[in-house]
Task: structure prediction
Amino acid sequence: MKRILFLIITLSISFGAQSKSLPKREFRGAWIHTVGNQQFKNMSADSIKNLFTTTLDNFQRAGVNAVIFQVRPQADAFYISEIEPWSRFLSGEQGVAPKEIWDPLQFMIEEAHKRGMELHAWCNPYRVTSNDKEQLHPDHLYFKRPELFKKYGKQLYFDPGEPESIEHTVKVIADIVSRYDVDAIHFDDYFYPYPIPFEEFHDDASFVKYSANQGFEYWQKGDWRRNNVATLIKELNDTIKAIKPWVRFGISPFGIHRNLKDTPDGSGSKTNGLSNYEQLFADIPHWLKMGWVDYNVPQLYWKIGHPAADYKTLIEWWSQGNFGRHLYIGQNISTFREPDLDNPGRSQFKTKMELTRSLPNIHGNVWWPGWTLNTNPNGFTDSLAINYQQTPAIIPAFDFLDSIAPDPVSSTKIRSGKLEWSHKSYKNGAEKLQEPQFFVVYRFPDGVEPNIEKSEFLFKIVEGTSITLNKQKGKKLKYKYLVTSLDRCRNESKPGKIVSSSY
Result:
C-alpha cells in the first residue's frame, strides 16, 4: 500500500514543472471497447447514456480530445444498420434491438462533438464470434454465404482471401461513413487471426482458387495473405475518401512490426515476439508509404525494460519513419505504474511521456482501456488532468488531406455573460473541407500580450458559436479573448478580433 501511495504522489508531481510547456497540438485519444460487455443488456437506455456521458465528462477533464468507440466488434452493429445485426453486447442477443430503440453511435457522435472531441468509429474487419457458444442471428451473412467464413480455434472469422469478404467489409464501412458524421474510421490489430499453437488457419481453398490469377506462386502464401489485407486497406481508404474526403482512416496494429531476427536487411526491431508482418500478415509501413492510412497507433503495451518487447526500443523504432502520416502511441495505462529503471522510487510515467513528446514524428497518445479513466487507477486520471494534459490540445492538422485554413470568425462580442461569434456558411462540395467544425477559444490575463501559439492560453475547444463566461470567486480579473475556427482536417484560421471582459 505504501508503494502504491508513493506512486500516486510521483504520478501527480512528476510533470508539474513542465505543465506550462504542453504541446498546443497533440492527439489524446481513448479507446472505449464494447466487445465482451455483459452489463449493457441489464441496463436501460438512459442508464447506458448516463454511463457514456459520465465517461466523456471524465475524458474531457483528463484532456482527451478523441473518442475511439467500438461500433462493430463482431460483424455486428452498435448502431442502427440494415446490413448487419444488432450487437449481442448491447441487448444480450445478436439481432435483437434494445427495448428502447436508440442509436449508440449517433448518441456518442453528438455527445463527443458537444465537448469539442472527435469521434472515431472503431470496427473489426474479420472477427465474427469470440467463442463457439455464441449464437449468430438467422439473418447473419454466415447463413447466406457460409463459404466466406472459417472456424479457427473456438472462433469464427471471415476468410480474408475471399474477395466477397473484402466487399462486405467495405460495404459496411461505406454505410457508416455515408450516414454518420464520424471523424475517422479506426481498425485495431485483428486482421488474420492471432496464431494458435499447432493449428493452421485453413484458407487453402481460397489460396488455390485465387492466388495464381493474382500473381502468386504456391510457395508465396504469406505474401498472398499480406496482399489480401493490403487490398482491403486500399479499398477502404479509397471508399472513405470518395464519400467524405475529410474522414480519416486509422490503424492500431500490434506493437511489433517485425523482429530483427526475421529481417535479413536488419530493418526489424530488437525484439522477440509475435509480429504483424509474419503472423498477422499486416504490412503497416507499406500502407503508410502508399498513403492508404492517415494515422498509425502501434499498441506499445509493455513496460520499459520488457525482455522481449521493450517499450523504449519499440517507440524509437516506430518514430524513425512514418512516411508523413500521423503516429500516435497506443498506451496501456497499467504499465505506467511500473518502477522507473533509473529511479525505482518513481513510476515510468514521466519517462514514457518524455519519450512520446521528445521523439520526432510522434503526434500523441491513445489510452487503453479508456473505461478505466472513470476509476482514476493509481491517480492516473488525476495526473492527466493536473499535469500531462492540463490544458486542451488541438489535434494535429491532416495537411496531407487538405491544408487550406478556414475563414476567421466574425462579430466576436461579449453579451449577457457570454462570448459569442459568427462564421461564414459553407456549401456542400469542395468547400466542405473548409467548413468550421470546432472553435478554439483563447484567454489571456490582463497585461499578457495575446499569442495563440502558447498552449497555456488555450482555454476551450467547442462545437457551438458561444460559451458562457462563468464568474470567478474572489478577486475580479480581466481577460482578453480570441476565437479561431478549426476545419475538419484541423487547419486553424487566423484569430478574430480581441474582446475583453472582467470577472
In short: The radius of gyration is 24 Å. The chain has two domains: 2-388, 410-502. The chain is about 25% helix and 20% strand.
